[in-house]
Amino acid sequence: MICVLTALILFGSVSGKMQGVVTDEATNEPIPDANITILNTDIGTATNSDGYFHIVHVLPGTYTVEVSCMGYQTKRIQDVVIEIDQTVRLAVELLPTLIEIEPVTVVSEKPVVKKDMVSTTYIIREDEIATIPVDYAFALVRFQPAVAIRDTALHVRGGRETEVTYLIDNISIMDPQNGELAIVLSKGIIDEIIFLPGGFDAQYGRAMSGVINMIAARPSERLQVRAYGKTEALMPYYYDFGYGNVQASVHTPLTKQVRGFIAFDAAHTDDWNPKLYVLPHKQRDDYSIYGKLLYAPSGKLRVNVSGAQSRMQFDRYNTLWKFNLDHYRSDMRTGNLEVINVNYTPSARSLFSVDVSRLYTELTFGVREPGSYGLFDNFQFRDHLTLEWPQASMRNPFGVYTRKPYSAGDYPEYGNKSSLVYRINTQATVQLHTYHELRTGFEYSHLDLENFHYFVSNTYDVIDSYHYKPHEVSAFVQDNIDFAGAFIKAGVRCDYYSPDIDSISPKLLVAPRLGASFLVTEKFLFRANYGVFTQPPLYDYMYSLYNLLPLPPYLEDYYKEFVAPVGNPDLNPEKTSSFEIGLQGKVQENVGMTVNAFYKDVTDLIGTRFVSALPVSYIQYINVEFANIKGLEAIFDFETSAFTGKVSYTLSWARGSSSYAEEVYQQYVYDELDTAATPPLQEYNLDFDQRHRVFIQGALNLPFDSQFFVFGYFGQGFPYTPPSPEGKTEERNVLRLDFQRQIDCVFTKSLRIGNRTLTAYAEVINLLDIRYPLGYHYPLISYEDIKPWEFDAYSFQSSYYSPAADLNHDGLITPDELVVGYRELARQTDDWVNVNSAPRRARIGFEVLL
């Protein structure tokens, strides 16, 4: 047994499983040694003495399975659908015969429920992906019941944005320093999305709320060319946000054993986060390239070599810099991923796999050099030594002297950080027994993290520079027990990480996972799962400014306004204990129902707190926050020959002591809303707590190869904190924004000419042109603070004189004229545009398949 456990290592192949039993139709006795063959593949096996068979590694797709045995009529089962991480069960009866007769062909029946789904699993398939009105792969889950979108952040079942991990073919594409996507890919390369919003298997780590596994396209056996383009230039100026996207891909069979796939994507927009209308300094240009090469010399050995490269760059808008945007922040992220995957299937009952990957990403931000940049031109950033401290001035359209908004100086930061991650994991699964499938695994990651962060000051500049090489190790074992009408998954995961600092001890995490399901009736499945999900801290939380401790005295006044919280390499992992129960089945022949109830207790969340120290006190990351999350999801799906649809309703409560790690620093120090640097540890509605949420998704088949798709969203507004006397914030998030709603639709028309297909797309986002508030807004300058009796008059000889404030151009600025200027400045800096949702947008697109 020790040898077996040593050989079996983490299962991670993007494949499914087929199993079943073969019996005599006349006697119902099991048939041993019956041959099971998946036609047009090299995959096959034979039944054991009890008539059972198992094939643990079958690539996703639709197959015909042939079952034969001497003395019996051969049977072929068509339309057997294999899905990733799912098990197809076949119960085959063979008719005894004394003479050879033609095989009988039957069509596989789609199971009402799949009993191996012990936790909530949402699968977005290729045909659905093509019509969802988004173009980035990571955004394809936005219409799933467990998801709440707050501005650009995606939250799963009440968790923080950083609690979700993104994978491509089981390989993480997350930047371990800040938790952002290291590479950004188009949905055009994706065959399938597997979304796990809770209760995921022990093989998944570094996630507490959800796992989004994007399965990339497999190279086809025949030549395929696809070209796609989309634009919204047809809209009137007010609704045209300058969006355009082009995609192209090619499947190229090189030999019988070697075939490849390559895809390209490029996108441009004048406003990457649309609100009421296009705002300046919000352009974005992205491109990505993805390729995969498959070598399959036999049915037992497959070698995949894949790689991806992407670059995204964009400008930012901030009302604080409204009159000086050319000196505000821009960002550029580049990334690349290389993967070698080897799968070896010595028998139908075992699979071994090795993955070696390299992920590199680099983020640069600061003030970019002025000028226009083409789609493929990288931003050039100003030398950080030339940046100037933001200053009070009169360089605004109203000529009044003010510190905020900034109208002189530069964004006072420049940053460049890179993350290089080498990973190796060996993977396997073995059917040890008719009822037991064992999965276990080991993974090693070596990280090379560099950071240079420059803070401009009007006294002493601050440089946060570090270079660390931490490493992470993980292992797990899981037993999948399939017996009669019940299915059980029992596993445990161990994670170990070392921060590469001699004085800090490494951390070891142990996370048990247990799930079970059984058939209540022939049409309904009950499932329940419990799991502990742990997540090592982001390395930004560990290393930021840590090398500067103790902070020098000159930072005492400067620190609060521009310098971030100090890292803590001794942070413990965050932990979520999650419980879930669910019921899934068929209400009627074409109507399915799923009900999920979940409860999550989140502890050791990272927050920020005041640390008293000499010579300078500071704010540091600490494991101090908590959250309590519970909810209910109900999903109804229906399907007819003309119409398919899904309606989901989510009721949830997300309460805790902090919505994000830097909240105390941001709310109590940076924004100076309260003089207390250490607020009381109390529970409140988190920023992304959305009590009620409904998603509607439908597809209607129309004549002449046309289809109409609709996507509806209705949700209660998110909570917010209103201003209170003297800026105090004793009560957090006591009010809610208005109800949110939006309907999107897509119309497609296909035209087939021989082997070619031309498809036209018409896409309308926010069909009803409904705008709703996304936040609370107020002017940067309070109207109550504009007091004429406190103003002096300025002649043209004064350094405080500005022609823009001299309304009658008589060479003298009076207090009354200053009041007009300050009031207009207050009105112009009320950020009402950025706190309202975007208007209607329409796009047209064309796709050509050859």
UniProtKB/TrEMBL annotation:
Span of domain TonB-dependent receptor-like beta-barrel: 373-696
Pfam families the record matches: CarboxypepD_reg, TonB_dep_Rec_b-barrel
Gene Ontology cellular-component annotations: cell outer membrane
Gene Ontology terms, MF aspect: siderophore uptake transmembrane transporter activity
Keyword Signal: yes
Keyword Flavoprotein carried by entry: no
Membrane topology category: Multi-pass membrane protein
UniProt record, GO biological process: siderophore transmembrane transport
Classification via InterPro entries: Beta-barrel_TonB (IPR000531), Beta-barrel_TonB_sf (IPR036942), CarboxyPept-like_regulatory (IPR008969), EF_Hand_1_Ca_BS (IPR018247), Plug_dom_sf (IPR037066), TonB-dep_rcpt-like (IPR039426)
Location of the protein in the cell: Cell outer membrane
Keywords: Cell outer membrane, Membrane, Receptor, Signal, TonB box, Transmembrane, Transmembrane beta strand, Transport
Family that this chain belongs to: Belongs to the TonB-dependent receptor family.
The protein, known as: TonB-dependent receptor-like beta-barrel domain-containing protein
